[in-house]
Amino acid sequence: MANQFKILVLNQISPVGLKRLPAERYTVGKEVDQPDVILVRSADMHNIDIPLSVRAVGRAGAGTNNIPVKVLSGRGVPVFNTPGANANAVKELVIAGMLLAARNLVGALNYVSSLDVKDADIEKKVEDGKKQYAGCELSGHTLGIIGLGKIGCLVADAAISLGMQVMGYDPEITVEAAWSLPSQVKKANSIDEVLKNSHFVSLHVPLVDATRNMVNAENLAQTKQGTVLLNFAREGVVNEEAVLAALATKKLSYYVCDFPGKGVIGHPQVIALPHLGASTREAEDNCAVMVAEQVRDYMEHGNVINAVNFPTVIMPRESHSRIAIANANVPNMLGQISTAMAKAGLNIHNMMNKSKGEMAYTLVDIDSDVPQKVIADISKIKGVLAVRYLPQEA
Questions:
Q1: Helix-, strand-, coil-residue percentages of the chain, each rounded to 5
Q2: pLDDT in tens, 345-375
Q3: Distance between CA atoms of 250 and 98, rounded to whole angstroms?
Q4: Element of type H or E holding 116
Q5: CA-CA distance, 150 to 174, in Å (whole number)?
Q6: Distance of alpha carbon 219 from alpha carbon 92, whole angstroms
Q7: Which of 86, 117, 181, 231 is the most exposed place for a label (fewest CB within 10 A)?
Q8: Residue 387: alpha-carbon gap to chain centroid
Q9: What CA–CA distance (Å, rounded) separates 302 from 310?
């Protein structure tokens, strides 16, 4: 009889993704007691009581600021996300944001909407309006991109196709991203270099301690007069007071953001959107499919792909019995785990161990069934956070 897993869904998750969780093995719903997994989009999990039964959390999106990652790490619970699944949707919105700012479209739309259709001179007023909303073309201007992950690379490619020059900066660019980055992108050595040389600047970094207030008064002072700043990353990567000051001095002509704070809402030079980055049918489907498949692989086989707090560990099955162990990244853990198995007369067929920061994760394939006592003994080892026995289902 296959193990049954219970999944609690905190937000509306695309049915296209949930179909990847077969009903004979997974019970999925918004009213699930003692869940094994929680799937979430934007719901704030910081102030909810997360049951101790939870073995994994899946975020159908990239950011995990709404999830208490540190608390879950202490329990040995991976937090999965879906980097790149919504990349095309965000890319298209960034291009739209640049066009809105470059062509002064918001003001132009509001101007026409304010006209009285009964006015005999309306045609003249429509024509007169274009003088005050003249803009510029994107072609020939420089777009600076800070953060060259999947989204940043796609934005760069689209901007080049529109005839723009592109300068990019990312001190932690991955090998995969480097391969997909268009060769025409000029590599910058600092954020300051990007801000000094760009007409448009687009941010694509996660919100972590190192990126909080990344754009601030000091470096905004170095921008070209009339620069357009686009923030489709997170509110906290930009110092809002510094942005308002730069708008007042016309250092920034527009601030286009998908995470508007109270201070910028309603400002005439701010184009504020209600977190629309991933709000397309296609992106929601992609995120749901990706997170469902990652969670299923973890629950059934222990493999870890795209967990923000766990190392990536993928080990093909080579035996019926598998043990998955999450533990603190401290010396002699593997020795103690191996000793516990050897004392029980178990033969290790294959083993993979990797670490990420303070977290380590081990998969062990065993040539025979594993008694529950062995699982209990391993769980008692100091530093072990979570142990799961994953026999191969027929």
A1: 30, 20, 45
A2: 999 999 999 999 999 999 999 999 999 999 9
A3: 17
A4: none
A5: 10
A6: 27
A7: 117
A8: 27
A9: 12
Helix boundaries (H) for the chain:
15-18, 69-74, 87-102, 105-114, 122-132, 150-161, 175-180, 191-197, 217-220, 240-248, 281-301, 333-343, 372-379
Strand partners, 275: none
Q: HEC profile for 360-387? A: EEEEEEECCCCCHHHHHHHHCCCCEEEE
* Residue ranges in 136-280 assigned as alpha helix (H): 150-161, 175-180, 191-197, 217-220, 240-248
Q: What is the mean pLDDT of the chain?
A: 94
Domains and CATH numbers, the chain: 1-86+278-306 (3.40.50.720), 87-272 (3.40.50.720), 311-394 (3.30.70.260)
Contact between residue 348 and residue 301 where contact means Cβ atoms under 8 Å apart: no
pLDDT digits (tens, 9 = 90+) for 73-132: 999 999 999 988 999 999 999 999 999 999 999 999 999 998 888 888 888 888 888 888
Which token pair is 60? 């159908």
Q: Which residue has the tokens 């309603």?
A: 266
So what's the pLDDT on residue 394?
54
Query: Which whole-number Å values give the CA distances from 207 to 8, 65, 237, 319, in the listed order?
Result: 26, 8, 6, 41
**Token code pair at residue 96:** 């739209």
**Sheet containing 384-389, strands listed edge to edge, beginning at the edge strand earlier in sequence:** 348-356, 359-366, 321-328, 384-389
Rounded-to-integer distance, Cα 255 and Cα 198, Å:
14
In whole angstroms, give the CA distance from residue 284 to residue 211.
26
Please, are residues 161 and 184 in contact by the beta-carbon 8 Å criterion?
no
> What average pLDDT does this structure show over 312-323?
94
Cβ atoms < 10 Å from Cβ of 147: 23
Name the pLDDT band for 180 (thresholds 50, 70, 90): confident
CA distances from 154 to 97, 172, 389 (A): 15, 17, 41
Tokens of 138: 């994107």
* Per-residue confidence (pLDDT) for residue 123, from 0 to 100: 87
Sign for the CA dihedral angle at 243, 244, 248, 254 comes to positive
